[in-house]
């Protein structure tokens, strides 16, 4: 684990941090929790706000892990993702009532874009309450396609009045086909297997060294936020 707990800037102001994310298999939650540990070690107050995907058209497919029928369940959201529409979600009170200085957004990629639950939050009035006048950072987690997701979250976050402080992405091992088979195998079984459909597959999901990267990024974000805050005072 990267040692980022030694804070040379004890006297600096500490932001109140909100970790807001959607996470179907826990990968986005995992990287935000690693970052959250660093914020806490350095004296910040940290709250988590997991988003629930409650849209009646899709909730059933995303209500259980592993997926019941993986290809059908994954494809069920493709038309809506392509149209960039939002859907029904449930959010914790923190996004409405909290007053945070730094909002970390955990955003898994769905069909080369931000997932419908994250888009739905970022297009809501609640997101204006959470983000307006605040710094935010984006943590994209995906098998391979991170850029469109990052750009979409940045655009929507800025439209809600936030200032993007930084972004980081985490992708999964393996080439195009094998990484997709490995992810699909995991989503449909909940297990890490060595072969799927007769093909040898690489590991999937966020790897331990990527949690170290998340910790380092959190420490850098905090330094950046402190420097900006001191410069503005
Ligand atoms: C419906 C669906 C569509 C996906 N589409 C993509 C994609 O187009 N590109 C990609 O790199 N990963 C894709 N993925 C993989 C996810 O990004 C990956 O499983 C995600 O990062 C897991 O994070 P989570 O456990 O926090 O939800 C998709 C996953 C799902 C469930």
UniProtKB/TrEMBL annotation:
PROSITE patterns to which the protein is assigned, alphabetical: FLAVODOXIN_LIKE
Any one Gene Ontology MF annotation carried by this entry is: FMN binding
Q: Which residues form the Flavodoxin-like domain?
A: 17-222
Protein name, as recorded: Flavodoxin-like domain-containing protein
